[in-house]
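One chain given next:
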Amino acid sequence: VIPDSVKSIGDGAFNGCSSLSTLVIPDSVKSIGECAFSDCSSLSTLVIPDSVKSIGKRAFQYCRSLTEIEVDSNNLKYFSYDGALFTKAPTTKAPATLVVCPEGKQRFTIPPGVTNIGNHAFKDCSSLSTLVIPDSVKSIGDWAFQYCHSLKKIEVDSNNLKYCSYDGALFTKDPTTKAPATLVVCPQRKQHFTIPSGMTSIGLVDSHIGFVAFQNCSSLTEIEVDSKNPKYCSYDGALFTKDPTTKAPAALVVCPRGKQRFTIPSGVTSIGFLAFDHCFSLSTLVIPDSVKSIGVLAFQNCSSLTSIEIPSGVTSVGAGAFQDCSSLSSIKLAANVTSIGDLAFQNCSSLKEIEVDSNNPKYCSYDGALFTKDPTTKAPATLVVCPEGKQFLQKTQQQKRQQLLSSVQRESSVSLFRLA
């Protein structure tokens, strides 16, 4: 029991109190800090008094048993409906913005009149399978549906002017045709998904973060695109941008996470940001010579991938491109790779060898490690990456000579000291 003298619950105050099942917050409390009840895994209900005026970010994250947040009806700032937490419209006193849906919910219908779904509103709602959005919703925050692993269907009221649903997924609505325009999120439990002819873009969190519409779709094995779509197409169940002239696949956007083997078709020129992200089952991959660039975090967490051969057409490998590929033991870089982003091979715990084509002007390999190449001598110059799976790294000839010279100098100094 919190004493009546307490005016605020600080950041992380109850963080990790996994045995906490019930809690009475007194009327004296005016603010609840960030992550205040984070990871209270046994907490099932929570009552917020009328005195609370502010609630910090992620205050109830990882409360997996939480099914109901109740707010005192006299609270001027917050409101509860069907166990979820909303801000209150100052004029109508009705729910305005959905702040958080309890993680224990299995189905949820947002009430009419709600205009905004806040950032992270449904994050970690791993039991949620169906969501119904009313016609009043005008905006949806960043990462609103992250880690909703059981989500199968999102329904949107047909009178909503901004959003619509198609094949159970959430889209923005074209203001003229009223057809699906931008894919916002594909439910993470879907195994097969069809992109309509009118879809012209895939949702972003922002221009620096990139595609999130398919993030965490661990069950997805096939993406199909309507043949009339002018911008996108599919090949072997993966999503590509379409070449405007040839209508063939141009850039790989997303490979479904359920894939075990994949051959990128010839003619594709780039592998996009997060294209193979968390493709845990992918063990075999063939990249054609037509590919020129591998995007940032393109193969992040492809934990079954054991080897990769980057072909002669590739000139750049993005930052973190193979990060957390824990089974990757060998990498071959062709002669034209002249740009490798930061942390491209970070946390590749099994990596023992990076092999570079001898004709590469920028990079070279020695004893399985990656170096920049001295432009004059063509010898290793700067160590870029030592494979994490190696137990030791042999010294280069230059290093060996330097060590020998240092040893001779030390011996000479000792001899002179003895003579003295």
Q: What stands out?
A: The first helix runs from residue 397 to 419. Helices lie at 397-419. The longest strand covers residues 95-100.
